[in-house]
Amino acid sequence: MNLQTPVRDASRAYKMYGSRLEKLGIRNLGDFLFHIPFRYDDYSLISKIGNVQAGETVTIKGTIEKIANQYTRKWKSLQKAIVKDDTGNIEVLWFNQAFLTRVMKKGDLISLSGKVELDRNKFTFVSPDYEIIFNNETIHTGRLVPVYPETKGISSKWLRRQVYKILDEKELIQEYLPESLIEENQLMNLNDALQAIHFPQNLEQAEKAKQRLAFEELFILQLSTLARKKEWESASLGYSFLITAFDKKIDEFLKKLPFELTNAQKKAVKEILADLERERPMNRLLEGEVGSGKTVVAAIAMYVAFLNGFQSVLMAPTEILAQQHYRTIQKLLGPLGVNVQLFTSGTKPPKIKDYRLKITEKNQKSKIRNQKSFDIAVGTHTLIYNKVKFENLGLVVIDEQQRFGVEQRAIIRSKGRNPHLLTMTATPIPRTVALTIYGDLDLSLLDEMPIGRKKVKTWLVPPEKRTGAYEWIEKEISKHQSQAFIICPFIEESETMVTVKAAAKEFENLKKVFPKLKLGLLHGKLKSKEKETVLMNFKNKKTDILVATPVVEVGIDIPNATIIMIEASERFGLAQLHQLRGRVGRGDKQSYCLLFTDSKNYATLKRLKSMESIHIGAELAELDLKLRGAGDLYGTAQHGRSMLKVADFSDLNLIEKTKCEANKIFNELPKYPVLVGKIKEINNKTVSPD
Ligand code: ADP
Ligand code: MG
Fold this sequence. Notes:
The protein is built from 27 helices and 21 strands. Strand 13 (393-398), helix 17 (406-413) and strand 14 (420-425) form a beta-alpha-beta unit. It is 41% helix and 18% strand. It folds into 4 domains: 1-40 and 146-166, no CATH class; 45-142, CATH 2.40.50.140; 244-446, P-loop containing nucleotide triphosphate hydrolases (Rossmann fold, 3-Layer(aba) Sandwich), CATH 3.40.50.300; 457-614, Rossmann fold (3-Layer(aba) Sandwich), CATH 3.40.50.300. Bound molecules: adenosine-5'-diphosphate (ADP) and magnesium ion. Adenosine-5'-diphosphate is lined by residues 259, 261-262, 265, 288, 290-296, 426, 450, 555, 557, 586.
């Protein structure tokens, strides 16, 4: 058994809890140790029973004199105990925990932590945390007690016990940082740090432990970026595309567009074409806000690949998005003789033979020129796992790249011989973060929106104005023949039946609110055909309002929609809200975003209010980083878990320092096999989409 042992293999209990633990990101034994407490309950004040004060949070240690269940009316139960030490005794009460009388028996030495209350001149301990003392050591009471992120059926108390057990197996924990690094940076060693982050003697110690773990987290991340970069650079050569030879064709394509490219788009195209001309495969990230026009940039790259006789693939994380891309690319490139094919989980790979048959009927010439079954494949993950056969894949484009794991990106690229890679993202990433996690990529930024776009007017709507807002939406829709999105709150991290049920319920409710309008419902559990229908109905204005779970976040383009109403907006990060807001404001009409929340928390309201005045994604992302920390940067809806567990992307100093150290050590890496293993672990981690 070691820290890599999957929890399911470690014990029967863990196996039973497997899927719950998975929700917390705990897959192997080591993950328990890196499940970091988000706070500590301070139960370190230990008092004799005779000295307790009302209102004070203390720990007492004593012997159980008596413990019994009492039943009240309505079958509620009450557990009453008397605990004594050499200075006196005290009454302890719990409610509805009948099992306690089985756990604790008269004569047991126990430790209790909680608040002392004064009830009719008598001190009482009400619902304290408890534990029976063995070996004089306590983990749930009498100290700084770690409190962890929990999930249904997995409590902090349970987690604490597991962590304690694993920490006890000292030989499991192997230091992976070089000793010199630890010394020079005055870091705690791994064993001490893990011990102290979970069971610190005081808060300073916990802080010191956190420093060490944050250091190693960023350090290893930096190393893994360097490793990826090196791997890419040492990869054998790819294809160099002809560019100037096709200048005229590219110009013709641009002239046919219904708009002129923005300067940012022109610059990105130039950078991409320069990459494609080289023999070293391109590895470029195209970052641009929702609506900044990434698709057409990608289309140009794919057109160039086509002109050079190569196939391209465009992969998107959802079927809706893949279908939309398919239509866009088909419209842009179809007329130029490019054969675009859609692959989603429903589609079977085309038989090359059949396709050639069709070609013979249609166009003899292209058959001779082009023996490929398609020029551009557009699709979802299906493209990775499906037996789609590429004859000469020259360019891979991945949209919303953060939704794909490194491994998935590698698999799709492996379908060709070192094809060029263009990844795209709309997630506004602060520079510091980009430099840390995408340091191995070249970056093209679309930092300019197509002209004529109006800012989406945004309001945080107080609950009492809900009815008024509904009325306004209805008027606005009928006055301008426009359409609206209503985004249901997401209840769970990923789309589950719970979310779907809630959305369906809200849908029924909204039908009553808007009796004159036609509503559609979109959620992730619909079959792809159904999704397509719902979306097409909305696009073709057969429905006025699209009620949706946050799945619509990922790029759909409905220029006629001018209103987006977002429920429980406090659950989203600002950058994410901004992305949702980007669903509207795509046409030339004034658009609106209405944010709802039941939160009364001042900080939350202030955070949401900033959506009214800030309309730049990157700025909102920076603000998110400052207000909520990087954990929420990408929002829970997109990423089940955040990328960093301990460190913080806003910690510029540490990012710089670890980068410097990573550079120093990178060339001697083979000397540190355990560290190499850690880096591999990171670089193989896949983000599971949907
Ligand atoms: P995103 O960057 O979010 O993927 P899209 O590529 O979907 O953005 O583009 C959003 C919309 O803007 C599309 O309808 C597209 O046709 C349009 N568009 C793209 N570039 C321009 C431009 N330079 N001028 C005007 N409209 C543009
Ligand atoms: Mg897009």
